[in-house]
Amino acid sequence: MNNERWRPSVTVAAVIEQDGRYLLVEELTPEGVMLNNPAGHLEPGESPQQAVVRETLEETGRNFAPEALLGMYLSRFFRPATGEDVTYLRLAFCGAAGDPIAGWVLDKGILRTLWMSAEEVRANAHRMRSPLVLQCIEDHVAGRRLPLDTIRADASIYMPQVKQ
Question: Where are the domains of the chain?
């Protein structure tokens, strides 16, 4: 019997729509070049809202202002080449992004950013890093919005851990 507690990998994602098009990143993955929402892992000492702002900046070179929570999504990914089996808990936010910051160098592995209509995203579903990319966009198109204060981060997450 495995006594290790199961822990999903917590990620955040930004769904950014402007003039009917969605901002995506094209990234190099072990499975090839894939499309994704600006997204990444929640790090120690930050709230989910802070994480999505940071990840969007790192991957797109744009400041992001979360306006609403789209939802919480759970998916499982198995990578046959390595045997990696990970369950992801994604917190997706929608909001507005600023103009690209001149001279910004995109995060490692991010090849470029691009704008696609919902129809183009649907037509490229096979190129999505996760089925959650399309699901988040579909939820945005459907008008799903939850208040940002649905997620509350206790002040304790910002305090250094005392090791005993």
Answer: 16-98+105-145
